[in-house]
Please model this.
Amino acid sequence: MSPVTHFLASWMVANAAKLERRERAAVTIAGIIPDLDGLGAVAQVLTLHSDHPLMWFSRYHHLLHNLAFAVVVAAVCFAVARQRWKTALLAFLAFHLHLFCDLIGARGPDGYDWPIPYLLPFSRAWDLSWSGQWGLNAWPNFVITGALLLATLVLAWRNGYSPLEMVSQRADQAFVAALRRRLPRSAAHPS
Model:
């Protein structure tokens, strides 16, 4: 699925429990960090027609999509949180939601299904893939992203904060205020 979908889904997981802003950010980042290995695409595109292309995306994408990295990410979230166990468990869940979403809906345009090497670096014995995986640009991904966006707006309106809080509290407050002006409580909850 797209990075936007992973981000919104992870933010939903972060809002499944009462967490502080920093903890919500940690859980959200935990759900998108498996795609850190996708940054190799930049080097690959820039060097594709050179004498020595760096095929980093083709070779290394999904190498961080594994249980060992999930444990490391959850441990980091545990270390930075006040509500340590709750944050670490939600981070672990968000990370695995990312893997699940990639498993069901991340087939490339060439038909390659990007298997998930779940037991790396210890073993390649359990590479996860699904023959029914739909493409990145398939309609289910658009529907899921749209539903997550709508749910994000509803949560932002209800809770008084949005994913923008991760980058700017001022922008977040302005966004939520604008959202609430356009949809006042009386319109959202008719009697």
In short: The beta strands are 116-117, 127-128. The first helix runs from residue 3 to 14. The mean pLDDT is 91.
